[in-house]
Amino acid sequence: MIVRDARPADASVVHRLIGQLADSVDEAAFRTRFERVLATDDHRVIVADVEGKVVGVLHMFERPALEKPCEAVVQALVVDSEARSSGVGEALMREAEAWAQGRRLPSVSLYSRADRKRAHAFYEHIGYRVKATSVRMERGL
């Protein structure tokens, strides 16, 4: 397995993988989002490539804050349903941690929906602990 930075040519496969995590937008809209994230210095998208096939993706970013130290936030982690429990997710998370350390960030955090029990067990298995629970609020503009 090779963990590498995502490239614009990975947009279609990353779109498919993200569709396993969240409601998918059409590919053109996704490509616009993907290219914007790739062009942003404090964001990073990495993929896991197994024998030439992308089977996982992780999007992370540096989150500055006033009320606490800056941190790395894992925005999305998806391992293809056929490649789960094979070490792909852990390899991507370890690369996220290395990126955070390289940027001198003291922690990596992530948010996971309350109903994603399998994901919670995975994160706990690799050393993450529940820090808090929250309610997300949004207002469309």
Any overview of this molecule?
The chain is an alpha+beta fold. It has one domain (about 1-125): Gcn5-related N-acetyltransferase (GNAT) (Aminopeptidase), CATH 3.40.630.30. It has 4 helices and 5 strands; from the N terminus they run E-H-H-E-E-E-H-E-H. Strands 1-2-3-4-5 form a 5-stranded mixed β-sheet, sandwiched between helices. Helix 3 (about 90-100) links the parallel strand 4 (about 70-80) and strand 5. It is globular, with a radius of gyration of 15 Å. The mean pLDDT is about 95.
Keyword list:
5 strands, Aminopeptidase, 5-stranded mixed β-sheet, alpha+beta, 141 residues, single chain
Query: At CATH's second level, what is the architecture?
Result: 3-Layer(aba) Sandwich
Instruction: Identify the strand order in the major beta sheet.
Output: 1-2-3-4-5
Rounded radius of gyration (Å):
15 Å
What fold name goes in the CATH topology slot?
Aminopeptidase
Total individual domains: 1
Helical percentage: 25-40%
Q: Please outline the major beta sheet.
A: 5 strands, mixed
The helix-and-strand class reads alpha+beta
| Number of E-type strands | 5
- Give the overall shape: globular
Look at the structure and name the CATH superfamily.
Gcn5-related N-acetyltransferase (GNAT)
Q: How many helical elements?
A: 4
Q: What would you say about this model in short?
A:
The chain is of the alpha+beta class.
